[in-house]
Amino acid sequence: MSHLNANERTWDRLARENSQFANVASDEECAHPLLALDRRGWLPGSVKGMDVLCLASGGGWQSILYAVAGANVTVVDLSPEMLKRDVQQAEIRNVSVKAVQASMDDLSEFGDSCFDIVHHPVSSCYIPRLKTVYEEVARLLRPGGLYISQHKQPTSLQIVERDQRNRYVLGVSYYHNDPLPAVQDTAYREEGAVEYLHRWEELVGELCRSGFVIEDLSEPRRGDPKAKPGDFRHRGMFTAPYVRIKARRRQAETSNVSQQTIWTPES
Prior knowledge:
Low-confidence stretches: 254-260
Structural class: alpha/beta
Shape: globular
Mean pLDDT: 94
Largest sheet: 7 strands, mixed
Number of strands: 9
């Protein structure tokens, strides 16, 4: 079974099981949608009329909040069950959301420069080559467009177990390229999913090389000093599980140097 098939089936199951990752937008969140989406001030003050792509973001949360805020929203996801939630919630909220089933690294259905914002929650771990995703996002964004993405940090994906002294053991090579092996510590892994480790060189370097300028970066805190060993919040005190990146699509480069005629001495 390919990683795409496995991950589609896994997320279909998580949607049917009402996983915490498939929570729909609440009334309270819809009352202040941009605040729910963005507590760091990365989004513009208004997204009304903007074309927004919620990438690998099915589940009835992100797309609904953008739509309630007045954006023209397209949501892409590999899982039809997750997308079903977006469609259902859009009907309930009386907003319009276009749902497209596709892999985040193949967005050939869309033309160039058709979105103002791409918002991409944690999901890049489910595909082997991050570069392809970044290149697709760069193609779809208009110059100056905003790309907000969140990823699993590589160190977190290297952890395989917690030892008897409650230390977290790195058992996966930093340069591991194949699908990640099964591990004992699954605090930040989804059962049944095929996941890949992406190094910082890929997470940040490939983003810059794909035509983006990084404007900000944060590490959402998931640790609690009061949490007991075995709780995901305990592990979160020892390694940050996620990184969130704000990037801007570079404007088309133009030369500021005027053409000059080569001077030659008169004969």
